[in-house]
Design goal:
There is one protein chain. α3 runs parallel beside α5, α7 runs parallel beside α9 and α13 packs parallel to α14. Helices cover 40% and strands 17% of the residues. The strands form five sheets. The protein has an eight-stranded parallel β-barrel with strand order 3-4-5-6-7-9-12-15, surrounded by five helices. A three-stranded antiparallel beta sheet has the order 1-2-18. The protein is of the alpha/beta class. The radius of gyration is 21 Å and the shape is globular. The structure holds 4-nitrophenyl beta-D-glucopyranoside. 4-nitrophenyl beta-D-glucopyranoside binds next to loops. The site of 4-nitrophenyl beta-D-glucopyranoside has 10 residues, from loops. GO terms for molecular function: beta-glucosidase activity. It holds the Pfam family Glyco_hydro_1. InterPro entries: GH (IPR017853), GH_1_N_CS (IPR033132), Glyco_hydro_1 (IPR001360), Glyco_hydro_1_AS (IPR018120), Glyco_hydro_1_beta-glucosidase (IPR017736).
Length: 463
């Protein structure tokens, strides 16, 4: 992991994976093609008031039919890896038995196209598009969903296992559980803290069972999962603020890292939530399943959290964090993106150092990092996005700092390759290195995309 700093450049190891990421529902469109059945995001986005401007993913970037053009764009940027997700409702429309060959065929062609362009395929099995019929049977609050997920993983592994460079079982199970079943801000839009904790466990169980399925199929790539981890910081060194940070860290980070990497839920999280649930949904043997060895840990990072203990009686009824009433979130001083998220690369450095300190020296990847900004289209049709360049440069510098400090960080993926359907924000937020005109579906590489190409070409960023 040789990193160097010379002549004003921060150089990365020659083996570093320079990537970009997307997710199926956010980019594909063609929601009724080739036997795909509805997912919870089709249902959720059809409900009035759920998504900004009533947007849906039915017609997004049109990647399903334009994937060759998109791989060509990746090639022109020089990506060495591309992280995409596989839509479960395209593979097993019944959610149970019977494989949909036509759906599988799309990913088969995509993977071959990537390999032909010299780009490593990184496949996420679950980026939030649960088949609606599984939700109708209880979704992630139903233990059976974890078993169905493993069946689906086995099918995909059989077909693509010889060519995918790395697997992510889940993308950000925190969002699936705490936004999907907790606040209801994401599909399926259910609310309730016990449901969120139940979903958390079944997502983790699904991860463990999927790891076993991938191993059983003999996949050649690395097996991992992607967590939206973060640095949680107390506003002051007051013990009450430190305790607020401990509680949020427990429910954001350790509730996932500990079962996967240590085979146990954190004792303080179990204690903090005992007034809500006795965690009876955890059965003997589950934690052994969940802690099956993984080859790497993947983290998606956007911003740190800054928290304090709130005055007695201050209740936040919209909080995703069960029993973390009395915790107040503060903006980090400094700039924010169009999401309102703080720009603070030190949070990424601290997160990477913390994972090594608390969970050991293991291969790590940053599988998402990036920023939404309001793009300006210039007179010549070009798109200047200096804020995005500054965001990416700053966070890659933080990655470089972590590698220099000995963290075994092997790759970085910009969120996102191209503008896309940003969940509850619809098309109102743009994260892409590539601009998408949603009327013509024309793609234009932004200044940030050109900047990334130059960085990849010399294997270094400006210091
Ligand atoms: C991630 N939060 O989502 C997802 O993996 C992507 O699909 C998404 O487009 C990207 O980050 C940008 O949002 C998140 O509320 C959504 O903390 C919400 C949160 C975090 C991540």
């Amino acid at each position: 992991t040789a990193v160097r700093t010379t002549e004003g450049l921060l150089a990365f190891p020659s083996t570093f994976w320079w990537g970009a990421a997307t997710a199926a529902y956010q980019i594909e469109g063609s929601v009724e093609a080739d036997g795909r059945t509805p997912s919870i995001w089709d249902t959720f986005s059809a409900q009035p008031g759920r998504i900004d401007n009533g947007d849906t993913g039915a017609h997004t970037t049109g990647h399903y039919t334009r994937y060759r053009e998109d791989v060509g764009l990746m090639s022109s940027i020089g990506l060495s890896a591309y992280r995409f997700s596989i839509a479960w409702p395209r593979i097993r429309p019944t959610g149970g038995h019977g494989v949909n060959e036509a759906g599988l065929g799309f990913y088969d062609r995509l993977v071959d196209e990537l390999l032909g362009a010299g780009i490593r395929p990184v496949a996420t099995l679950y980026h939030w598009d649960l088949p609606q019929e599984l939700e109708d049977a209880g979704g992630w609050t139903n233990r059976d969903t974890a078993l169905r997920f493993a069946d689906y993983a086995a099918v995909v592994a059989q077909r693509l296992g010889d060519r995918v460079a790395m697997w992510n079982t889940l993308n950000e199970p925190w969002c699936s559980a705490f936004l999907g079943y907790g606040t209801g801000g994401h599909a399926p839009g259910r609310r309730g803290h016990v449901g969120a904790l139940t979903a958390t466990h079944h997502l983790l169980l699904g991860h463990g069972l999927a790891v076993a399925a991938l191993r059983a199929a003999g996949v050649t790539g690395q097996v991992s999962t992607a967590l939206n981890a973060g640095a949680v910081r107390p506003l002051t060194d007051d013990p009450a603020d430190a305790d607020a940070a401990r509680r949020i860290d427990g429910l954001l980070n350790r509730i996932f890292f500990d079962p996967i990497l240590r085979g146990a839920y954190p004792a303080d999280v179990l204690r903090d939530t005992e007034q809500l649930t006795d965690w009876h949904f955890v059965r003997p043997g589950d934690l052994a399943t969940i802690s099956a060895p993984v080859d790497a840990i993947c983290v998606n990072y956007y911003q740190p959290d800054l928290v304090s203990a709130a005055p007695d009686g201050e209740l936040d009824h919209g909080t995703p964090y069960p029993t973390a009433q009395g915790v107040r979130f503060h903006p980090t001083p400094g700039p924010v993106t169009h999401m309102g998220w703080s720009v603070d690369p030190t949070g990424l450095r601290d997160l990477l150092l913390r994972i090594r300190r608390d969970y050991g020296d293991r291969p790590l990847y940053v599988t998402e990092n990036g920023a939404a900004y309001e793009d300006r289209i210039g007179p010549d049709g070009g798109i200047d996005d200096p804020e995005r360049i500054a965001y990416l440069r700053g966070h890659l510098a933080a990655v470089h700092e972590a590698i220099s400090a000995g963290v075994d960080l092997r790759g970085y993926f910009v969120w996102s390759l191209l503008d896309n359907f940003e969940w509850a924000f619809g098309f109102s937020r743009r994260f892409g290195l590539i601009h998408v005109d949603y009327d013509t579906l024309a793609r234009t590489v932004k200044a940030s995309g050109h900047w990334y190409r130059a960085a990849i070409a010399r294997g270094a960023i400006e210091a």
